[in-house]
Amino acid sequence: MNRAVIYARFSTDLQNERSIDDQVALCRTYAEREGLNVVATFDDRARSGGSVLGRDGLLHLMDQAREHEFDVLVVEALDRLSRDMEDLAGIHKRLSFLGIEIRAVHEGVVNTVLVGLRGLVGQLYREDVAHKVRRGQAGRIKNGLHAGGLTYGYAYVLGDPGKRMIVEEEARIVRRIFGEYVEGQTPRDIAHKLNKDGVPPPRGRTWNASTINGNVQRGTGLLQNELYAGRLIWNRVRMVKDPDTGKRVSRPNAKGEWQTVEVPDLAIVSAELFDAVRARKKARAITHPSHQRRPQHLLTGLLKCGACGAGMSSKGIDKTKRVRIRCSAATESGICADPKTFYLDTVETAVLTGLAAELRHPEVIAHYVQTYQEERRRLAADTDARRARLERRLGELSREIDRLVTAIAKGHGDPAILGPQSTTLNEERKAIVTELNQVPAAASVIALHPALLARYEEQLNQLRAGLAKGLMAGDSESAEAMRDLIETVTVFRDPSRLGGVEVEIAGRLTALLGEKAFPNGVRASGGMVVAGEGLEPPTPGL
After folding, report:
1. Which parts form a coiled-coil structure per UniProt (predicted)?
2. Helix (H, G, I), strand (E, B), or coil: what is residue 269?
3. Contact, 139 vs 126, CB < 8 A?
């Protein structure tokens, strides 16, 4: 008896769990009638047929197929396997290559024509359902009902789907945020106070500026949600599924596609207050090109807080015009365990001195490049061996196919036997050609020129002097050049010195090796190196 497996699936949590049992029972009855021996069953519960991603049952089935654990796959109907034309055709193609037959209870033995028809019908059905769902949502919106999730400040009305009611405790927080913003406070100041007062956020553990500010284009954030002013807006974004990952991502729709309905009973703030917030946001959004964000300092965008791992940003200047920096988490949310303020020039001095001390030893670079070269050579040899093996097998297959075609043409064999053999070999040949196209070309190995080490010390001194001079002159290219050497700088408080600072540098030797090399660690305090792990050799398998 042929070994058979059964696959069953249902789409959403709203469907009955017994659907799986019913499908399996139907397929078992069919298998008994056809004389098939069922050796395993696979299922996916509450999984859409629009993608094979995230369907563990189907993926396990395909793994078993590659191990030749069964000969026939039985399903209730082809749409249980997939409602996507590409996926269904791919499943059929791979199982056919493995010599596995697909049988559908209601359709019999599956062939290419049936796969094409059912794949098309399944995908059209899925798209039609999506259109009908959106049509139904649009109708609910016109009646003042919600078609989506829950907004902060509101709760569901039990027994009345789509209805919302105001939660007064949360509504007071919304009014507080709007009022404080109009009074001149920034979103990060408001978030800081809310966290200090222990106010529960809409989601997560803390309030932050982005929760309040949101995104203008997508209309997110408390200050931009027009529902608080009594206007329900739907269809700002649409959800599309990434075919490579299976994940749904949002895309903003044109403003002409938005649907707006007045719901005055859900207004939490007055129209005047909402308009005042909008006017202030518009005024704050106007930025002169000369003030737009760009690296202004040596370490702009590279600093991290040693206490909590968040980024660090400028926090104004003191009376002596020295720039201060502070943890962004402390500034945005007030949640950093050690929200200390540091002087930027002290951190820059520590970084430059520590980096120079670490890179001052040419033998470190020599060892770095030597190990890098050895690993590159090993990988190149593996790649060449793999390519040679594939090319050898490709030649064998081509010669065997040519012999079969010649035999058929000359009448030396039965075409009914030789034809399928030739087709199977041709499928294997196509797979090998695809694999060959994916084999990366051997990377060129960087040579360490003797003159490089001889000039390295001189160039290092020039680099430090040039960077310092360029930064003092406001040259943003100098700051960008530093990013070729430094990836992150983590700033710690130095407990042994009053006002002392300790930094940990994670860097890359892009300037020397021409690509992202390997991270290295440098510890420096007050401009003096206090500990160093050195430049570690490249990780095997780069």
Report:
1. 380-407
2. coil
3. no
